[in-house]
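Record type: monomer structure entry
Structure origin: computed from sequence
Chain ID: A
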Amino acid sequence: MFAQGTKEQVERSLTAVRRHPLIISAEAGTLPLEHSKRWIFCAGRESRSFPWILKDLLAWTSDEKVKTILEENLYDELGSGDPSHAHFLHYLHLLDDLRVPRAEFDNYQERLGIKLALSLAFNIAKSRNAGRAIGYMLVNEAMTPVTYTAAKSALTGHFPHLRTNFFDLHIEVDDHHVAALYEAVEVLPETEREDLEFGIALGRRGMEILLDEAYGIFDAHLEPIAITAPRWNPLTGVGEGTQAAG
């Protein structure tokens, strides 16, 4: 019913993420190794959580077409019947190919970016709002060619002898998922349009904040910041007291 407008909004989101400095640096071959590895750590943590997000969506989805799409997506994520090929394990195998100890993945100290991105995803999954959930997933999965192509460029620059189908496989699978999600858009009622558009915006937000973490945006201050409102002095016209502490 409004699929064309949805595709245009999704494409605008992809265009915006292509301008993220991590993507630009990765494609240019200038992304430092540390940030390249952190992209794997962040994307891997999202992948580890994704089956649970899909299960939360399936717990309340009532439309049979949407339910079938989500079930197929979950089946893929869990390895299409072979748990040894679960998508999350692909990230660990990639680390093995790069000779990066898995302990680095296990011990990576999550910053606020991945925590916010996952919290956003789980809250959308539990929202019982079909339009918002489908919009979020559309961007989340349509973004794969953008982020994985950039990551492949960055990592092969650091590891020129790397031979893996990790990136191409994920792009191929998610292209299939995106096509199915657009079929789900076709059956959404007109009343879901605004929520669908909002979900797309949330999907872009979640992806950007995950890339922010991989790029080091949240490294300067790791501890929670306690905000205290300053006391307003009407005589001087300025605030008194500490505004931020922690």
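Annotation 1: Strands lie at 226-227, 231-233, 238-240, 244-245.
Annotation 2: The two ends are 50 Å apart (CA to CA).
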